[in-house]
From TrEMBL:
PROSITE patterns: FAD_FR. Keywords: 2Fe-2S, FAD, Flavoprotein, Iron, Iron-sulfur, Metal-binding. Its cofactor is [2Fe-2S] cluster; FAD. This is Sulfide dehydrogenase (Flavoprotein) subunit SudB. [2Fe-2S] cluster binds at residues 223, 226, 238. GO terms for biological process: pyrimidine nucleotide biosynthetic process. Binds 1 [2Fe-2S] cluster per subunit. InterPro entries: Cyt_c3_hydrogenase_gsu, Dihydroorotate_DH_Fe-S-bd, FAD-bd_FR_type, FNR_nucleotide-bd, OxRdtase_FAD/NAD-bd, PyrK_electron_transfer, Riboflavin_synthase-like_b-brl. One of its GO terms (molecular function) is metal ion binding. FAD binds at residues 63-65. Residues 1-96 form the FAD-binding FR-type domain.
Amino acid sequence: MAYKIVEKRQLVPDVHLMNIEAPDVAAAAKAGQFIILRIDEEGERIPLTIADYDTDKGFVTIIFQEMGKTTKQLAKMAAGDELQDFVGPLGKASEIEKIGTVVLVGGGVGIAPVYPQARAYREIGNKVISIIGARNEGLLILEDEMKAVSDELLVATDDGSKGHHGFVTDLVKELLDGDEKIDRIVAIGPPIMMRAVAGVTDPYDVETIVSLNPIMVDGTGMCGGCRVNIAGETKFACVDGPEFNAKDVDFNLLMSRLSLYRKEEMDSLENYKKGCGDDCKCQ
């Protein structure tokens, strides 16, 4: 069965949104879960967090950044093209419950998986404060969408081109030092950003959840590639997560494992740019 791309558009440079016709996945999807896709029979499997889903239309929304060979290849596809595989939903859904005031923090492309959580938390009566950040205004995504599902939206850019001049962690600390009680913080983005949020919240009595993105192959817990260290125990992000309590995560190990195959990833990308296969030996 092939999965049709029904919509494809660029959000900001190198970041794209696709709606995929996958009614079975859409019917079962929940905030916090992910899919694994494969472009064709020769393609690699890549995990992407579900950014949205429409059960009536049978569409699943994914948002991705051009980084390696497969995301570069995916970015060249258009509406009407088809994907070989689109498997999901995978992973445990976010534990959405009515607890009071929830702060959702999204950095870069991490804003995409934060969006369905913000909507879900607010729909059941929580106060939602969202913080989104990027290097500059031109790289911010889903600002209007996040505003629509938040009681308050705060923006941070590294260069100060929009909102707070600085990092999302600055705004997190301001909220924690304020008068309002924060009941939960959810942070999704690059590992270094999530580690920084965990560091800021550690001295405070507030639950902090992060969504991990380790190397992943099968997505069902068999390969062990996505193993992470959580409170001294080995867990598989694909079946035990992807969300964990931030204070329990060994971020140094996570980031170290993410760089294990950097050379192979770069070689694959260069061969793709030259029009060669992954086993190309040309210079």
